[in-house]
Amino acid sequence: MHRYRTHTCNDLRTADAGAEVRLSGWCHRIRDHGGVLFIDLRDHYGITQCVVDPDSPAFACAEKLRSEWVVKIDGTVRKRPAGTENPEMPTGLVEVYVRDIEVLGPAAELPLPVFGEQQYPEDMRLKYRFLDLRREKLHANILLRGRIVDSLRARMKAQGFCEFQTPILTASSPEGARDFLVPSRLHPGKFYALPQAPQQFKQLIMAAGFDRYFQIAPCFRDEDARADRSPGEFYQLDIEMSFVTQEDVFAAVEPVLRGVFEEFGGGRPVTPSFPRIPYAEALLKYGSDKPDLRNPLVIVDVTEEFSRDDVTFNAFKNIIKTGGVVRAIPASGAGAQPRSFFDKLNNWAKGEGAPGLGYVVFETTDGKLAGKSPIAKFLPAAAQQAIAAKANVGAGDAVFFVCDQEGKAARLAGAARLKIGNELGLSRSDVFQFCWIVDFPMYEWNEEEGKIDFSHNPFSMPNYGHDAFLALDPADKATILSLKAFQYDVVCNGVELSSGAIRNHRPDIMKKAFALAGYSEDDLEKRFGGLYRAFHYGAPPHGGIAPGIDRIVMLLAGEENLREVVLFPMNQRAEDPLMGAPSPVTPKQLRELHIRLNLPEPKA
RNA sequence: GGGGGAGUAGCUCAGCUGGUUAGAGCGCCGGCCUGUCACGCCGGAGGCCGCGGGUUCAAGUCCCGUCUCUCCCGCCA
After folding, report:
1. pTM for this structure?
2. DSSP A114
3. Which of A119, A136, A159, A523 can pair with A519 through a Cys bridge, CB separation 3.0 to 4.6 Å?
4. What is the pLDDT of residues A312-337, one digit of tens each?
5. Do the Cβ atoms of A549 and A562 come closer than 8 Å?
6. pLDDT tens-digit readout, A233-288
């Protein structure tokens, strides 16, 4: 007989009745009835009920067992007595009558129960992550993650992509996020950086002629955390392809994402063909570049309607005069809501930093559509009807208004759209709604520095004729700021899964692109020397994308927080309370690295 | 760097307009119980009410500061 087990805790069935077996696992739950004692023995695979009574030589030992002790149990499989079967459990028709127990690993009193679904504080969960990971939901999430990664790999390979490993110790890149630095022992005063993404490597792989690259790539960024953004490190399905247009990238990636979401989505429908939404349209209609399309509400611009001469609502008119816009969020069916609904939304908007949310409730009076609201008296019937027509609402619906400068108005309208949709229960929760966001602006105006900047990443190819781009006058701000890039995002249920782009592979266009943002060729060589050099020796047109693994798993597991799908996550302050990272190092280690600490004064 | 929320038993939480000895459930310890599967019943231990200061006859409760966790903004090419 094997030293530890003949079966797992999910193996035994009625057909095994009579067998002498050996199981090992954790005491999940113990029910002591005095004369008879039940141990739910749990391992990775499942749970099997073990029974001890005073006739068993193991009875005395069994009475001493406590939750989460690891034990080896020898016994006989038997059918449970009639009426005591548990159909909820795969092993629920049988039990093991215990003859011998060996304690393999006793457990101290638990700071965090494994049994049950209760919520526990994050710091406790992280400090005792090994206990938390024993719990059913988290254990299942981590396994799901593994299966998703397997599936992504298989789907990529089936399309002819080859997996590569790129360096972890590399050079600091001055663009983008803050780097994690690693001091060099051999080169005093110099540092490696952990890659923020294998961006330049994958482009170099294309320049090296490998054609189709992918990697489940670790990425490191020293930026603050969010619920959907790990501090420090995360994984992405990094993809790059040669001789492709934007459409080719979509055609390669869309079936991978759709396939994985169909495979692991538990039957929830997945967008059959991802719609393409231009960036500007997304900001107008959804108030966000990551629209949640499960929410059916569509924002419209009603600046024109509020500018009419017969409208006397000066609170908005004055903002419009300074370049502001008015956005309307239709609220289907909100007419039936009590006054408190509108007050609640108004208070919410104030919490978001807005003066409030104007609204009109539409009803039919004398066969005509009429608005009721605190601001209705400023809006003559004709203006109300024009707004209702534009927002596509009728009697029984309401419309909310926000008025501000365009960017702020769009953002608030977008947040209000989500809030209203949730309050009214309009969003479907059991679907995966994907879309591509396309036509991102190539440049944006940097208000602080008063200059033109790259709006996303400097590697994207402008969506503009090459010759025309090379001929652009740097003083022609209007044209430059109106340029689009071959840059795209893929979004699912309001979660940005990925950014990608067709890359700028031509050194002349790259030089021009940097020049328009105020960078010299010298800057370009300093920052991206390796890549820039590669582009001088025959680089193929190429492009790619990099969907975040953690977010994909989050969506599929139905989790709101990334820590629920990461084995050993850090807390919001980028600490690992289990391993004690980050930690001080010895003076000897610092000496070898030629580092002397210059710490801030401790607060008094 | 900024804003919101939270911090009371090992864990989850209650504790009203300040007022005797700070409670419950789970867990733990002891006792009882031969068919439970969130077993049940009886008893017990366990509290710097995050920390420091203030107001008050009296503070878990009010005020100020501070620390910690968390969510958000900034940031994340």
Report:
1. 0.92
2. S
3. A523
4. 898 888 888 888 889 999 998 888 88
5. no
6. 999 999 999 999 999 999 999 999 999 999 999 999 999 999 999 999 999 999 99
pLDDT band at residue A46 under the 50/70/90 scheme: very high
Whole-number distance in Å between A260 CA and B40 C1':
47
Which nucleotide is nearest to A38 if distance is taken from CA to C1'? B36
- Give the closest nucleotide to A113 (alpha carbon vs C1'): B11
| Measured CA A111 to C1' B48 distance, in angstroms | 21
Which bases of chain B come closer than 7 Å to a protein CB?
1, 10-13, 26-29, 32-40, 66-77
For residues A345 and A357, the answer to whether their CB atoms sit within 8 Å is yes
Q: What's the complex ipTM?
A: 0.86
If you write DSSP's letter for every residue of A446-502 in order, what string do you get?
ETTTTEEEESS-TTBPBSS-HHHHHT--TT-HHHHHH-BBSEEEEEETTEEEEEEEE
Average pLDDT over residues A125-148: 92
State, as a whole number of angstroms, the distance between the CA of A121 and the C1' of B58: 34
Q: How far apart are CA A583 and CA A575, in angstroms?
A: 9
**A445 and A489 in contact (C-beta within 8 Å)?**
no
